[in-house]
Write the structure tokens for this entry.
Amino acid sequence: MAHQATPSSQKALMMELKSLQEQPVEGFRITLVEESDLYNWEVAIFGPPNTLYEGGYFKAHIKFPVDYPYSPPTFRFLTKMWHPNIYENGDVCISILHPPVDDPQSGELPSERWNPTQNVRTILLSVISLLNEPNTFSPANVDASVMFRKWRDSKGKDKEYAEIIRKQVMSTAAEAERDGVKVPTTLAEYCIQTRVPSQDSSSDLLYDDLYDDDMEEDDEEEDESEMESIGEAGGICAVEDGGTSTRHYDNQDDSGNEDS
Amino acid sequence: MKVTIRHWSGVASWLWVANDDNCGICRMPFNGCCPDCKVPGDDCPLVWGQCSHCFHMHCILKWLNSQQVQQQCPMCRQEWKFKE
């Protein structure tokens, strides 16, 4: 490994960027902060419809270390966010962005941490699900966490949390206008507009297309294994939900059999 | 017609037989080499774990060596053991 050699992270990042621009994750737009710097990405995030974040236009930067994907990137919101798992400075606190060091204080299992098969796609999916499902067990913003719990436990009667978020969402309209972006507010817009059709049948692109498909499959596998490991780690909510829904299915199946 | 062969060259092609096309760590094709190598082949071999996941040897070693805690397969997070 000579000194001038291009770091392997460069190749990995180039491939991920290409894949994410050709087949974006719903609700995300990815660009480079500066054309010449592959290690700094700008992310524009559309708030998912039918949530508190609907209509929001949020900006974040992802910074990659030179030994990516062996070490995780950092994910920092530039838009002000009031959220239990986002620090004052915008840094997002999720376990998959933490290296798997042994730290019993953190409450995070090594199995929930970063590893080199994670990628920007899995990070974006984690971030978008975190927005509406904060983890109150290890808050980065304690005040926001307390307020969120009041809102959740009162089933929305205590409106303070929701009002702050809506206010922040409203204030992002100016930024969207400045960037000339129309923020999707319905599920249909949110899903369709972010999908870029790239049906080019020229032979040069054939290999690339195949390749992207492979990447997709990889991601799905990872997501599954991630979910499994969360289940193992004792995600109480997930287990309970699984139990009830299975019972539901059983009942339906039984009644179906009796009828026929 | 009578043909006299004066000269011939043998050509062979090879492939790694892996359960996937790309290394999950460096994301490069298995039939290529890891990003730190220049030529594919025996100098940049593939290795399998007992969990059946496969990586460029250089990639998985780099990851395992950077781990202070229990060594796990980055794909399935089972304990990593090399398959003989």
